[in-house]
Write a structure and sequence with these properties.
- The complex is a heterodimer.
- Chain A is of the alpha+beta class.
- Chain A is built from 10 helices and 5 strands.
- Chain A has a 5-stranded antiparallel beta sheet with strand order 3-2-1-4-5, with no helix packed on it.
- In chain A, α1 crosses α2, α4 runs antiparallel to α5 and α5 runs parallel beside α9.
- The mean pLDDT of chain B is 87.
- By secondary structure, chain B is mostly helical.
- The radius of gyration of chain B is 21 Å and the shape is globular.
- The longest helix of chain B is centred in the first third of the chain and has 43 residues.
- The chains are: A alpha+beta, B mainly alpha.
- Chains A and B meet through α2, α3, α4, α5 and α6 of A and α1, α3, α5, α6 and α7 of B.
Chain lengths: 383, 252
């Protein structure tokens, strides 16, 4: 099996990554906090505690000894202690070779601040980048570049928010920039890209209307239950920015697929009738809808699994989970799914309008056309 | 609000998708039920890794077979998804374990709610976190896998003379085409989810060193990157799988 990269390229890339990882494992001199590398760990079972349903939870004492890697006392050894449990809900277990941040006491010993994770983070990033380049070659590089630019724009927007700009204004600007840039990267400078960008923007605007309508006719959302709450005054705006951004990727995906499909049909058969075109758009829509909604379902809802397990164990009800704990993830998912479904007719309309320049009256024809298309599809599947 | 949006989603799916929109909606509900059952089994005390692998098998059944029929394409897709789920568990498990990504992060630790909740659960949080990561990539992996296997099957139907090697190559080509948008979808989902965290880091004026080493950032990024890695891994795996299944079908 041929991959996109030569063996030499793979090995070179791995060598660079290995060098960076080795550097990161020795970068303690860059930190102001004291870094300690653990050289000796001894665990002993200390005591048991009872859980809410009578579970026995074992706690362990750790005696840790490590070498100080930076600061005035570099090279010296110091001992620390730590407690961890089997579940590890609210504590952490350290192992030999781990690097940790500590505050040293003048009288000896010290307090553990936390684990040093920069190396682990880099390792994850490298795994992803390596797979991306190995499977996708130069295209992979383009994807990577597009992601980096988007992260940069996101950080710029964050700074603008920090300087006091209104979240909603930033959100609008972000949508425009993200939409245009990402689709340009994905599809190049082409008429169908323009159709996809326009369609994404209109879809997002429509979902904004739907969201506001649903928001104002329902009970107030329990914003204080959100993760990582800081300032209480613009929580609803911030949450909405997240909702829109989360759905944007999926919406763009749908729009570009439909626009590319319509462009392909028009290229193959410029004389295609409006009816047949609408049928094809519906057909593409079916195929995309189910799987894309699934993608969002798993990505959004899985992130809250750990806290849900903790709360279920503590006797919280399913009602509490849905109404308070997971409500934000569920709303993000539902808005994303609605965006996907909306994007199908919207992008169909814009693609046909911009690419053929002739036909526009699409929505009126959709219903009539459906049964024939379904029959055709079923016939095709039977083979 | 959830109820209203769900009803709206259902209506839109019916309007845009007709009967098949209704089918997709029911499939989504079944998926949600299995998802919930998995969480309950974990909370009940069964080993999270086992329950999650079982639910992965159920999900492939619900999403792949019941929506696309029982055929060689879907056998190949289902096998590939399970292989990738296993590989990711085996490869990412030790990495996440080593990085200590489970349990409360430094921000949740000081939130009021975590003071009230008992941490004595006798459920391994690192296994639960790993399960969450694997479930998170499942949707995108199934999507990519189905796209690859259906396209290769189409190629095979049109040109039955192609060798196994050529089929694998066409699978890889299809995978590469859709990869960009899939990674993008995951990326924006992650970005949307981390808005709050990013604002928090900024308002707290945390140093770059603190952010890079925080558990909160690692948790957000790990799900995203491993999801992306899963989508990449599934491309060669499902290309090889579908080529194998089509060859076997021909031999019979």
């Amino acid at each position: 099996m041929k991959l996109q990269m030569s063996w030499k390229g793979c090995i070179g890339l791995l060598a660079v990554f290995a060098a960076v990882l080795i550097f990161i494992s020795r970068d303690a001199f860059l930190y102001e906090d004291t870094v300690v590398k653990l050289t000796f760990v001894e665990n002993s079972c200390a005591y048991e505690e009872e859980g809410p349903e009578g579970e026995k939870e074992r706690y362990y004492e750790q005696k840790l000894r490590g070498r100080i890697l930076n600061g005035d006392r570099k090279g010296e050894e110091e001992t620390f202690s730590n407690t961890y449990s089997d579940s590890g809900v609210n504590d952490e277990r350290f192992r030999r070779g781990d690097q940790i941040f500590v505050v040293l006491h003048a009288a000896g010993g010290g307090v553990i601040l936390g684990r040093k994770r920069d190396g682990s983070l880099a390792l994850l990033i490298f795994c992803f980048v390596f797979l991306l380049l190995a499977v996708n070659g130069w295209m992979g590089l383009r994807i990577l570049l597009s992601l980096l630019i988007n992260i940069g724009i996101f950080l710029l927007a964050l700074r603008a928010y920090g300087q006091g700009r209104a979240p909603m204004a930033i959100a609008v600007a972000l949508m425009l920039v993200f939409g245009a840039l990402t689709l340009l990267f994905a599809a190049g400078f082409h008429k169908k890209t323009a159709a996809a960008v326009l369609a994404s923007m209109v879809t997002v605007a429509l979902s904004y209307g739907i969201y506001q309508l649903a928001l104002h006719t329902s009970d107030r959302l329990p914003y204080e239950m959100m993760d990582y709450v800081v300032s209480p005054n613009d929580l609803s705006d911030l949450f909405f920015v997240g909702v829109v951004m989360g759905s944007l990727g999926a919406v763009m995906d749908v729009c570009i697929s439909i626009a590319a499909g319509v462009a392909e049909i028009l290229k193959q058969n410029p004389q295609v009738t409006g009816k047949a075109l609408v049928g094809s758009i519906r057909e593409m829509g079916y195929d995309i809808m189910g799987t894309m909604i699934n993608v969002l379902f798993f990505s959004y809802l899985s992130s809250s699994i750990p806290i849900v397990v903790v709360k279920l164990k503590n006797g919280y009800t399913l009602y509490h989970m849905i109404q308070f704990q997971c409500i934000f993830d569920i709303i993000r998912f539902l808005m994303g799914a609605i965006g996907i479904v909306l994007a199908i007719p919207v992008s169909g309309f814009f693609s046909v309008w911009l690419l053929s320049g002739l036909r526009g009256g699409k929505p009126a024809q959709t219903e009539k056309n459906a049964p024939e298309q379904r029959a055709v599809r079923k016939g095709g599947d039977g083979k | 609000m959830i109820l209203k949006l769900t009803i709206l989603l259902f209506v839109l799916m019916v309007l845009v998708g007709g009967n098949r929109g209704v089918d997709s909606f029911w499939a989504l509900l079944r998926t949600a039920l299995v998802f919930l059952a998995d969480i309950y089994l974990m909370a009940w005390g069964l080993p999270p890794v086992v329950t999650t692998l079982l639910s992965c098998a159920l999900f492939t059944g619900i999403v792949l077979y019941s929506q696309n029929g029982v055929n060689a394409k879907m056998h190949a897709a289902a096998f590939s998804v399970l292989i990738v789920a296993l590989v990711v568990m085996a490869a990412a498990g030790p990495m996440l374990w080593r990085a200590g990504m489970s349990g409360y992060n430094e921000i949740e630790q000081y939130e009021e709610i975590s003071m009230y909740l008992s941490p004595n659960l006798s459920v391994s949080m690192s296994a639960v976190s790993l399960s969450a990561v694997v479930l998170g990539l499942l949707g995108a992996v199934m999507d990519t896998s189905v796209a690859v296997t259906t396209a290769v099957n189409e190629v095979h139907v049109n040109q039955p003379a192609l060798t196994k090697e050529q089929l694998v190559q066409s699978g890889l080509a299809v995978g590469r085409d859709i990869l960009g948008t899939t990674v993008n979808t995951l990326f924006f989902v992650g970005l949307g989810e981390s808005v709050m965290l990013a604002v928090l880091f900024m308002k707290n004026e945390d140093s770059l060193a603190a952010v890079l080493n925080s558990k909160a950032l690692y948790q957000e990024v790990a799900g995203l990157l491993i999801g992306g890695a899963g989508c990449l891994l599934i491309i060669p795996v499902s290309s090889v799988m579908i080529a194998y299944f089509l060859q076997r079908e021909d031999a019979v």
